[in-house]
Amino acid sequence: MDEKAEIAPVNLYPRSTDGLESATMSYDDEIRRKKRRKRLVYIAAFAVFQTVVILVFALVVMRVRAPEVEIDSAAVEELSGGASSHYNMTIVARLKIKNKNFGDYKYERTAMNISHGGVTVGEGVILNGKAEARDTETVQVTARVSSVVASSNETSSGILVLESKAALRGKVHLMKMWGIHFPMMKKRKGAQMNCVMEINLASRVVQDMDCDD
Ligand SMILES: *[C@@H]1O[C@H](CO)[C@@H](O)[C@H](O)[C@H]1NC(C)=O
Ligand SMILES: *[C@@H]1O[C@H](CO)[C@@H](O)[C@H](O)[C@H]1NC(C)=O
Ligand SMILES: *[C@@H]1O[C@H](CO)[C@@H](O)[C@H](O)[C@H]1NC(C)=O
């Protein structure tokens, strides 16, 4: 009996080895299953990450904003007149074209008009050009202004009020972002300039400039 009792565990071995093999198999399966689950989690996380990237890209980078244009400063040259309140002068304006987009803004040649009390008194030319992505371009525009008839209170105050308007037409080219070429990414955008300037007739300077945003 003692011998049998000793043999019994020996006999159990082959069966337990079988069990061990299947246990090892299911353990491998478990690892594989865990790996697969982990991979799915990674894929899901990556999909979410990619969606966020695309959303940010669509909402921030691809959003096309209208550029802004205004007269930053202006100088008065060759001011002449005074007789019967008629004045001629040249206005040299420094314009700023601000482009907040992630692509270049290419604009066409256009006029910068100068008027006095609703009457056009001069015109300058904004040459075609480009404001780089997220940058501000400075351009100089010279306008010959003639036959301004000062009102009586302008004559008495010595301050001439002129308005300047321009309507830029152009396209935002999102195609040239980070050196990557997106041929379809062009969008028309206009920019309006509307400024009022006060010219001091005695000191011959632009003493105040106020532009709409
Ligand atoms: C202003 O210029 C016009 C021509 O553009 C000329 O006929 C006129 O005499 C000038 N007036 C003054 C005050 O210089
Ligand atoms: C000239 O006078 C009118 C009213 O008399 C006033 O509305 C206008 O603002 C004045 N212009 C200037 C430049 O002071
Ligand atoms: C400037 O003047 C020209 C001709 O007088 C006109 O066609 C154009 O619309 C004017 N531009 C603006 C912005 O008022």
- Bound ions, cofactors and other small molecules, one mention each: 2-acetamido-2-deoxy-beta-D-glucopyranose
The strand count comes to: 10
Strand content: over 45%
Distance between the termini: 106 Å
What sequence of helices (H) and strands (E) makes up the elements? HEEEEEEEHEEE
Q: What are the low-pLDDT stretches, counting only 5+ consecutive residues below 50?
A: 7-12
Characterize the main sheet: 10 strands, antiparallel
Domain Late embryogenesis abundant protein LEA-2 subgroup: 95-184
Transmembrane segments: 40-62
Pfam families: LEA_2
Keywords: Membrane, Transmembrane, Transmembrane helix
Descriptive report:
This protein has 213 residues and is α+β, with helices and mostly antiparallel strands. It has helices spanning 2-61, 152-157; strands at residues 68-81, 86-99, 104-107, 110-116, 119-126, 129-131, 135-149, 159-173, 186-200, 205-211. Strands 1, 2, 3, 4, 5, 6, 7, 8, 9 and 10 form a 10-stranded antiparallel β-sheet that branches. The longest helix has 60 residues, at 2-61.
